[in-house]
Write a structure and sequence with these properties.
The complex is a heterotrimer. Chain A is α+β, with helices and mostly antiparallel strands. Chain A has eight helices and five strands; from the N terminus they run H-H-H-H-H-E-E-E-E-E-H-H-H. Helix content of chain B is 20%, strand content 20%. Chain B has a five-stranded mixed sheet. Classes of the chains: A alpha+beta, B alpha+beta, C alpha+beta. Strand 4 of chain A pairs antiparallel with strand 5 of chain B, so a sheet runs across the interface. Chain A: Belongs to the bacterial ribosomal protein bL19 family.
């Protein structure tokens, strides 16, 4: 009898282990924005795991985070190999003309663009990236800043040829994958000076800014209590809204493997896509690094001369 | 994460909590952003003007459209210079629905606009100005900042 | 005891009922309300028999055959034509000539930017392994005539085109016979295009995306997305009725469909619920913006090409009088000169991604 129970125990333990592995697997290779932040938080625990993968494919591992727009829409109704290939070629061609830096939601960007409504002027907008969406040539991002006490948001297409320059002034991540709640936060949390300079990169990994932001009192543009936000200090709502939020919460969705599968590109396909663009992207990255170093050296020199 | 409802009652603002209308139609509350006397007084009083007519075929106001507003018991014309709704790429979206008061000839009532104004307004204002009609380009001259 | 008996009795009764009712249930056989239109078998195809022949092949021979078949499949680059180009009679384009179209596959939609900075959505259409299968001269070409269409008095010939190579082992001998006589690899789809006799092509001539030029206008025929039986709001864009204010059970219904009196009937053509989509539609006057000669892909200025992604569509020279083509490649682009073309062809107003950024200059400067 004891033997049987032991055997059974072992079996269930194995099953559990399998389930655990299955749970982890889609996380590490998911293209979901939602899961990205999860990984950023428990980076330390999963470091041992991810290290192995990184060894296997030195830089392809984090390409899905650095270049999310190279992954196509997972909806099978819109997939086609040739179209994706042509789209990638176009994207690389554009990237070889304009160097698009690595950035995430929460990074501070400066976009210089040419505007038909303001010819012969330098149009520069600085702001925090609060949303990054779309895939392929449709990908776009949303910048937010406060100008003269008025919150301003501008939407840019990443591959728009009228954009002259994109600079990442501060490279960091936030706790959430969308920062749209900054619209309902005090203005000082989305105020950035237009004459900001590029900050020097300190560490190899991307720093995560774990600032907690208080929200303005009601009314809000969206019902933030329903979004499970991590970067918000405390959410003050009445009991009715709390109950409604609790009723509409879907805590089981993170265990839904089929949902993850439907909303992500499988690992093999990701590797295929990135190995296709790897050489060109690598070349561009090296060029970008050289330019960046030059710029930093110049700035150091100029600051020295100023102090003298 | 949640704070009890009693605290909420203390903190909550005494403003209308009806759902935000995402487009400028009749009876939308607007924000006057120039330094005209009447506009300043209305905003200080906490009674922002209401749009009572949109001069367009659809009755929905978009950026650069002319509106008729009810402000401090008077009827004034204004131009929408910044909207809260989602805009096209490279056209800014603002946190409030901004309006600049003008008179019938297109001359602004104030002398300064204290919020940024979208670049696209230059093209729209120039397009709307005809040689014999109102001159809306005067509005661009009193702007302090373009984004 | 009595209770047990009672329950037993009750069970019996119940079971009897069940059995009876089961016997009584007769599943009604519901025929189709509207039978599908009768298909006429195309005259150039042999009658299908659907019989797989046992070839009695050795495993080695089977392997060899599948190897040969795989060589022929999925070639994106145009194979070098074995045809002697002289066999294609060079003809001059004259007013009223009609050349062949192409069979394409809609592969997706993505934006391009014009030189003036405007973003436009374009549909990508791939031309896969298009080859001429057969030419039917005007004397022998007698298509089915629908009385409702006007028929031109000029008699045109017909070109049968095939697209998408398939494995010859998977098809019947009869179907293979069509291609065997023409000397082309078996194709998945066939389509006929009426042409004037001076645009006739020899069977086996490969056609590519360079058949069209960037800047030309085309008509695209495709089968729209099948949406099934739909109500009047989705199918015809009716407004429906209010959600509240005393409205009961008529939120998405059409409302009145006609008047009484003498006209006490439903007028023909009244918009009613029914099957939506899955019918042939032609999008006319679409501009070609860009052509990739390596992958044989055409970018057209439209986001509403009929059909889902990965479905076939047919491209013709447009019939719109103002957008008609005056100097096309006639009868087609010479298949042996493909390598002379650059990989990407653009119209003048499209911004290629390899070109530098767009900068707007003030008018005084430029």
């Amino acid at each position: 009898m004891t033997m049987v129970s032991r055997l059974w125990c072992q079996k269930t333990w194995q099953n559990l282990a399998l389930a655990k592995v299955l749970g982890k697997e889609p996380k590490t290779f998911s293209t979901l924005v939602q899961l990205k932040t999860d990984e950023a938080i428990d980076d330390n625990d999963s470091q041992a795991q991810t290290n192995d993968e990184l060894i296997k494919s030195p830089s392809l591992g984090n390409y899905r985070l650095v270049y999310p727009e190279f992954l196509p829409d997972p909806n099978p109704l819109f997939r086609n190999g040739i179209r994706e290939k042509l789209e990638r070629m176009d994207m690389l061609n554009r990237r070889s003309v304009l160097s698009i830096p690595e950035f995430y939601v929460g990074s501070i960007l400066a976009v210089t663009y040419s505007d038909p409504h303001a010819v012969g002027k330098i149009n520069k907008f600085v702001g925090i990236c609060i949303l990054r969406e779309g895939c392929g040539l449709r990908s776009s991002f949303l910048l937010r800043n406060v100008v003269n006490g008025e919150g301003v948001e501008v939407h840019y297409d990443l591959y728009d040829p009228a954009i002259q320059k994109i600079d990442c002034l501060r490279l960091e991540k936030r706790l959430d994958d969308e920062l749209l709640y900054l619209r309902d936060a005090p203005l000082e949390y989305s105020t950035f000076p237009f004459d900001m300079e590029i900050e020097a990169k300190i560490s190899e990994s991307i720093p995560v800014n774990d600032i907690k932001i208080p929200l303005n009192p009601l009314p809000w543009s969206q019902r933030w209590e329903r979004y499970n936000l991590k970067g918000v200090k405390e959410i003050v709502v009445n009991e009715r809204r709390q109950k409604k939020a609790a009723a509409l919460a879907k805590p089981w969705e993170k265990y839904d493997l089929m949902k993850t599968y439907r909303e992500t590109i499988p690992e093999e396909e990701q590797n295929e896509i990135f190995s296709d663009v790897y050489t060109k992207l690598n070349e561009l990255e090296i060029q970008k690094n050289i330019l960046k170093r030059k710029y930093m050296l110049q700035r150091q020199k100029s600051s020295k001369t100023r102090t003298l | 994460m949640f704070v009890p409802g009693t605290l909420f009652n203390v903190v909550s603002r005494s403003v209308s909590t009806s759902t935000v209308c995402n487009q400028i139609i009749k009876l939308t509350r607007l924000r006057v952003v120039d330094n005209s006397e009447i506009g300043k007084a209305a905003m200080m009083e906490g009674k922002p003007p209401r749009c009572i007519h949109v001069y367009s075929k659809t009755g929905v106001g978009y950026i650069g459209d002319r509106v008729l507003v009810a402000i401090k018991g008077e009827k004034k014309k204004g131009i929408l210079v910044g909207l809260k709704q989602r805009q096209n790429a490279k056209v800014p979206r603002f946190d409030s629905n901004n309006v600049v008061l003008i008179d019938d000839s297109g001359t602004p009532l104030g002398t300064r606009i204290h919020v940024p104004i979208p670049h696209i307004l230059r093209t729209i204002m120039r397009k709307n100005t005809h040689s014999k009609g109102a001159d809306y380009t005067k509005l661009l001259a009193i702007a302090t900042k373009f984004v | 005891m009595t209770s047990i008996l009672k329950t037993f009795n009750g069970y019996q009764l119940f079971s009897k009922h069940l059995k009876q009712s089961l016997d009584m249930i007769a599943v009604p056989v519901r025929g189709r309300q509207n039978p599908p239109p009768r298909k006429r078998h195309p005259e150039w195809l042999p009658k299908p028999t659907h019989v797989r022949y046992n070839e009695d092949l050795t495993p080695e021979n089977k392997e060899f055959l599948s190897e040969v078949a795989s060589l022929n499949k999925g070639l994106h680059e145009m194979p070098k034509s074995p045809l002697n180009t002289e066999l294609i009679q060079p003809a001059k384009w004259t007013q009223g000539s009609k050349r062949t179209g192409l069979i394409g596959k809609k592969i997706g939609v993505y934006p391009l930017w014009l030189k003036n900075g405007k973003k436009v959505l374009t549909t990508l259409i791939q031309i896969i392994d298009n080859e001429v299968v057969k030419y039917i001269p005007p004397e022998k070409f007698n298509p089915v005539k629908h009385s409702k269409h006007l028929h031109p008095k000029i008699k045109n010939g017909c070109l049968v085109l095939g697209a998408v190579n398939i494995d010859p082992q998977l098809i019947t001998k009869e179907y293979y016979g069509i291609f065997n006589s023409a000397g082309v690899t078996p194709k998945k789809t066939l389509m006929r295009f009426t042409v004037t006799p001076n645009a006739a092509l020899q069977s086996g001539t490969p056609l590519c995306a360079a058949h069209f030029k960037p800047g030309e206008f085309i008509d695209i025929r495709g089968k729209t997305i099948d949406r099934g039986f739909q109500g009047v709001m989705k199918r015809w864009g009716f407004k429906g009725m209010p959600a509240s204010h005393g409205v009961t059970k008529t939120h998405r219904r059409p409302g009145n469909i006609g008047s009484g009196g003498k006209k006490a009937r439903v007028m023909p053509g009244t918009k009613l619920p029914g099957h939506m989509g899955n019918r042939w539609r032609i999008l006319k006057g679409v501009k070609i913006l860009r052509i990739n000669t390596k992958y044989n892909v055409i970018w057209v200025l439209a986001q509403n090409v009929p059909g889902e992604v990965n479905t076939m569509c047919y491209l013709y020279d447009t019939i719109l009088p103002t957008k008609k083509n005056t100097s096309p490649h006639f009868p087609t682009y010479p298949p042996n000169d493909i390598n002379a073309l650059p990989e990407e062809l653009y119209t003048d107003d499209v911004h290629p991604f390899t070109e530098p950024n767009i900068e707007y200059q003030s008018e005084q400067e430029s």
